[in-house]
Amino acid sequence: xxxxxxxxxxQPTTPIxxxxxxxxxxxxxxxxxRARAWVDAAGFKGKxxxxxxxxxxxxxxxxxxxxxxxRDGLATLGGLPYTLxxxxxxxxxxxxxxxxxxxxxxxxxxxxxxxxxREAARLVVAESARLAALxxxxxxxxxxxxxINTPAADMLPSHLAAEAMQLAxxxxxxxxxxxxxxxxxxxxxxxxxxxxxxxxxxxxxDISWGDPAHPGIVLIGKGVCFDSGGLDIKPSSAMRTxxxxxxxxxxxxxxxxxxxxxxLPVHLRVLIPAVENAxxxxxxxxxxxxxxxxxLTVEIDNTDAEGRLVLCDxxxxxxxxxxxxxVDFATLTGAARTAVGTEIAAMFSNDDALAEAIxxxxxxxxxxxxxxxxxxxxxxxxxxxxxxxxxASSSPYAGAITAxxxxxxxxxxxxxxxxxxxxxxxxxxxxxxEGGEAMGxxxxxxxxxxxxxxx
Length: 455
Ligand code: BES
Ligand code: MN
Ligand code: ZN
Description:
Helices cover 34% and strands 21% of the residues. The protein is an alpha/beta fold. Strands 7, 8, 9, 10, 11, 14, 15, 16 and 18 form a nine-stranded mixed sheet that branches. It has a six-stranded mixed sheet with strand order 1-6-5-2-4-3. Strands 12-13-17 form a three-stranded mixed sheet, covered by helices on one side. The two termini are 26 Å apart. 49% of the residues are buried. The structure holds ligand BES, manganese (II) ion (MN) and zinc ion. Manganese (II) ion binds next to loops.
């Protein structure tokens, strides 16, 4: 964790003032002439990303004035940890929790393999309850990012299971893992088929937490630790980023951390099919037919459409306990990225009110999600000549929708939300460093907190 936010201290802190472009002229004109000269010399105009020092009566730099975007989001303070000189700061103007979170998230760097050699500026948050809530969010997002950024060789199914075990232990949850051939004994055939060619065996991670009398929530995350495409091998450029194909798993572990840390009154279950989609003599093949856990048969049209295969058995398992809500996160399709780009989570749901509420929570949390339709007529694109359905569409269009429709076949009428996410920032923005990223986690967390308020 970054520890960029800290509690009240006796150490000296540098005050920060926020000034946006709208207020800039009035603010500048009210400055005493010497301070005005410092501001002008720095070229400060109140634009986001700008800052300037203001002198005290001895002419020493004393206060930092920072350009404000005048929005309530991660970006307002998210660039400051690595823009301001390292040190300890306090903010003199009112700021929101979201803006403070931006500072924490902007201080993140992935330092497993090297130290990035620059200390983040730190900020005092004097209200301890506020700091505690922000710290949990920071820890959850940091976990998501670290899991995604870790290369496949160090984040294989066995490593992912160890991470899940550790999280469960911290929160007093149970965690059962079904490994390798044992998947076949339980009829979890798709998870086994996708992962069986890999040296690190496929497995299903199953975390349970909370009072069984509370409403059941099942979180499901795609845990493809590396996606080579299988026998339908990906070209190098497409394979290059596929360590992040367990991003959905990382997302549900981060979300589970928040639910358990805040003790939301729910009965939580986390299901992660963890596999590597590898190539070997025993790999599953195009044209093979798999019997799913639910009973439907699936003809493999493309071994690179593996995410929906591992998810379908997890979904069928989730539905058995008739939960109040199923939420899945998956780096499922390139087509979702074509539709909404890399920075918005594509959302699908069989429940309009649920989708609307999560959309609104996403707007409020600066965690954008956008709904795409489960357009039933497109389900015909998944027809197979020899099995109940095919795992890939016969059409090059609407790939995110046909993938979601595939999943929908295994969900039935249980309230369900599916997120097709990038899980990775392809460029750095304030509060959102390049690399692994949580997308939709804070939206769903805010929705759940509102529906199931903590005690
Ligand atoms: N993990 C990929 C999807 C992906 C690619 C997500 C790039 C984010 C960025 C997934 O397993 C995949 O390969 N999907 C195929 C499906 C196709 C074969 C039907 C795709 O999107 O091309
Ligand atoms: Mn794939
Ligand atoms: Zn994949």
